[in-house]
Prior knowledge:
Elements (H helix, E strand, L loop, with lengths): L5 E9 L19 E5 L13 H7 L4 E6 L19 H13 L3 E2 L2 E2 L1 E5 L9 E15 L2 E12 L3 E6 L2 E5 L6 E7 L6 H16 L11 E8 L6 E6 L5 H25 L9 E2 L10 H8 L3 E7 L15 H10 L7 E2 L10 H11 L6 E7 L1 H17 L7 E5 L5 E6 L6 E3 L6 E2 L2 H9 L5 H12 L3 H9 L3 H7 L6 H18 L7 H12 L8 H9 L4 H7 L7 H14 L1 H7 L4 H12 L5 H16 L1
Parallel strand pairs: 3-10, 13-18
Antiparallel strand pairs: 1-11, 1-12, 2-3, 4-7, 5-21, 6-7, 6-20, 7-8, 8-11, 9-10, 12-13, 14-15, 15-17, 16-17, 18-19
Amino acid sequence: MSHEVTVGLEIHQQLDTRKLFCDCPSCLVEEEGASFQRRLRPTQSEMGEIDRAALAQAERKMRFRYQAPPSASCLVDADEEPPHAANAEAVELALTVAALVEASPVDEIHFMRKLVIDGSNTTGFQRTAMVAMDGFLEVNGRRISIASLCLEEDAARKVETSGSEITYRLDRLGIPLIEIATGPDMHSPDEVKEVAQRLGSIMRATRKVKRGIGTIREDINISIPGGARVEIKGVQELRMLPIYVEKEMERQRSLLSIRDILQERGVGPAAVESIDITSTFDGCTSKVISGALKSGGKVLASKLPGFAGVLRSADGRLRLGAEMAQRARTRGVKGIFHSDELPAYGIGQEYVDAVRQALGSAPGDAFVLCAADEAKARNALEAAVERANEALVGVPEETRDPQPDGSSTYSRPLPGAARMYPETDVPPIAVPAERMDRIRANLPELPEARTKRIAADYGIHEQQARQLVREGWDDVFEEIAADREMAALAARTLTSTLSELERDVDISRLDEAAFKAAFAGVSAGKFAKEAMPDVLRKMAEGKGVDDAVKELGLSAMSVDEAREIVAKVVREREAFVREKGMGAVGPLMGPVMAELRGRLDGKAANELLREELKKLLS
């Protein structure tokens, strides 16, 4: 059966324990602490091979500075002391999740070193261990395979990039992660989100995973028929998963169209070479070019025979130029220019014609320019031309970084098997059958059981309970709903109100602490529950509860003030009230609540309205 898209997921979930190989707390801090510098180089695997992804990182020649806050890092994080034995609680949690997804544990857990030289690990590698394999979960009646479940350490946190130096903070380094890799079993963008939600709710069932943005990250492996496996690494927002899949499908389709066009034209690989055309740009007003020349740089150009029209088509659908620019930036330049986008950016037609002449271009040819330090410009054009030549084959396998709009940008080639070798400093951990029997006999409440219990215990609809569990709001709901009067409001707010807000505001600031503060405001009488959507909208903009209430003019209203407003609404509709009698309560509640503007609880407003109607009708 042919599918429009094939997707596999890797989910990385931080555990709420101490760090994996030392006793430091696993928390993020604001302090910088002492700093030190490192350079990292790729090493050979056991088989004497150097991983292509590691090599690509090494070619960037970056320097790395590390901040070591004393409250959240130690000599183990700085790679000045050997790792301690793996954290027992983290190992137990990994085995528990393995049992929850029906995966078969290994007999012995052995940690490996995975080569990583982007600076995010002081050692130049990440410690990771296979814990279990061959599990599965059911999602919408379909069986999704779990290929592997690993326990690994999180990377250091990037805080700044300045030129060729990256600064990392060691607070996040070493926080334990469970990594779950599914099989390539998903075939629609929405299914990817549903599987991620299901896995998230299973891990949250342990009650020992961290919550909030950055504590769970998804890597998405995507391919379409005729395309190639592309990994989008480090997606942090669940709601964005379908968008990343859709946009990658579009990108791969576009690259396949470009391949077909080039093949129809009989285009062959372009020569990976560039010529110096600096003198051609004397007097050019382009800021990029004049700036590069003032700082002693050069303008270099490369010819792409037969590539005209595919670097950027008139309708914007074909965009090979953007792919080439992303590849060029990995060589340290800010960008490139290509013939499909010129004349523009201060480069007039006369310069375009002069470049064509210098390159000896025919009408169907394209070209690419770079203005920078000569060595960097040559390197960048080499990368850009190599990327153009890859278009003759179709979609290159690569790792890409997610962007906020759902698109992605080139990061590095897909890593191969040459990046793993044994960790000799951490002893293996035996997993006897008795241990797994004990874990299976004491498994936490699964999402289905939790859904039923929450619905029954708090008197809310099962659909609401299911949504709370699926989207991870069940813990905060139970905390708020401990005050039973808040249960219905909490369920409505965390399901439908939140979905409505998400359509037109960025809700990333609305975390557990924000919701608890908002409900505490209702409990304390700072504002009426009817104003909850408006207050949350303000809080999504970064306001605290008190500031939101003040800005919205929701400060508590006395009963006398409210009675006066209700009486006014009744007087203005006296004829209607006399006609309907007490049947006017329902129709008048809308105008009354609109006048009260969330400053009085609906129940209290209803009582006042009834009192005023009785007075008028008596």
